[in-house]
Amino acid sequence: MLRISTLLGLGSAACCLTLLAVAQEVPSVQEARPTTALLATDTPSTPTLEWAQWGGDSRRNNTPIATGIPTEWEVGDFDFETGKWDPTNAVNIKWVARLGSQTYGNVVIADGKAFVGTNNSGGWLKRYPSDVDLGCLIAFNAETGKFLWQHSSEKLKTGRVHDWPLQGICCAPLVEGDRLWFVTSRGEVRCLDTEGFYDDENDGPVKDETHTVAREADVIWIFDMMRELGVSQHNMCSCSVTAIGDILLVNTSNGLDESHINLPSPDAPSFIALHKKTGKLLWSDKSPGENILHGQWSSPACGELPGADGAPVMQAIFGGGDGWVYSFDVNGDGEGGAKLLWKFDANPKESKWVLGGRGTRNNIIATPVLYEGLVYVAVGQDPEHGEGVGHLWCIDPSGTGDVSPELAFNAADPSTPIAHKRIQAVVPEEGDLTRPNPLSRAVWHYSEQDLNQDGQIDFEETMHRSCGTVAIRDGVLYISDFSGLFHCLDAATGKVHWTYDMFAAAWGSPLIVEGKVYIGDEDGDVAIFRHSADPAVAMKEDGGERVPYYGEVNMGNSVYSTPIIADNVLYISNRTHLFAIQTEPAAE
């Protein structure tokens, strides 16, 4: 069974210079950063007013600007049969909105609205009672939490192979002005009017007059990837799209069938670009091809990065279901095809894919992050495959061709690299061997580090599988993993500053804001650290144990999504509710 958080970050996983309320400088060269104690110092007076896509903008770095964000709150009480909120004991809660029974989509805030993906257990629409299984994208008023409208994706008749029961919309939408783009669980890219039918206008050519009522979505265009491209998504289609100009970037989620062995559509594209206003296909790429391991649920990143000649190039970065990172010229080749700039194998060549997560080779569910001219991404698997060895990479994007750390050869012809093999790239028993790649653009790699220098690698000194997306500020990087470890590293060197065991798996990604770092876990706890490379600053001692400096706040049930900020309000979803969290004014 697949359950994706952040895409999440699922869960992850997945990403373009979209106009937003906040803009951050992106130098095209690497800049060394100090590794001593750090607190956020880059806080201008103007807060981030909107968080209009996963990661805030196409670079996907969850680091908004805000002030007065609380570190203490109480969510209040709930009737677990009706889901009704009792605010009597709530503290610092602005409003609460009912979602479905399983929520993995990350909320975005734009155009005065909160948009979040979930399932239909909330039963917001009369024509779709709560016992009807749907993928839902719901719009709420960002100031009050009032329900506005819902987009409803009925389940595919093919069942769980393509559209897993009770899994709703697992991605986050992209919003610009009064337009919204997202990927449905049915394998469609849809463009919506953010007003729904509240404006009493049907703005798109997609006509469904029986549903043009105020609580319904207003669809502008639809691109069906299954019908148009022959895509066969595995369990769920989920990608948090991004865009630059009129170019919309999408991971199609093409994957295996229910056997977990056969790939029904090896020639279907994995990565596509659509015209944002019309839904027309601009270019496509099928690079992972027959090497897709399971599914493809990563989301793309996009930004201006140094090219091979040193000049900046607008690069679209995709994480593939084969465990490779791919970079394309965002404009394609001009003839409907993709223009590959470079590719990077994020797994050791001798790692092996074994069904059910029992192997050591991973795909990529996390979203790549662009920071100061470099690309950061971790590998992982379906969270239900459990813990396993993971890898976190920092990649220099100025290369061409295969920029992996190693190349694969066979002893029969040791001078010619061999083609990549899906299950195991290098099989020593068959005469395969590896050599360092002289064109490698790996800046650093983190899988394990002996922090206490005792000659052994402890559990806390290991990077495990993750669908989490990194967050970086002031040269300090944070990431969570499925084993419940929260890692803090130097973004320039990969040196590990500290790790913290949350004792619960984390599917989401960190939020860095106002000198604080927030991360949620499967137990429903949101841990809050000081933003610092020094563990003595980030955490404090309590009974001989290190604990997050500001402690943990429990959200009532599992937090699979990622906290975000917009207009000085903290938004966090647990499985069943969306919370707007804001410091209450002092009593007069």
TrEMBL record:
Keywords: Signal
Database matches in Pfam families: PQQ_2
Keyword Cytoplasm found: no
Signal peptide: 1-23
InterPro entries listed in its UniProt record: PQQ_b-propeller_rpt, PQQ_rpt_dom, Quinoprotein_ADH-like_sf, WD40/YVTN_repeat-like_dom_sf
Domain of life: Bacteria
Keyword Disulfide bond found: no
Annotated ranges, domain Pyrrolo-quinoline quinone repeat: 466-527
Protein name: Outer membrane biogenesis protein BamB
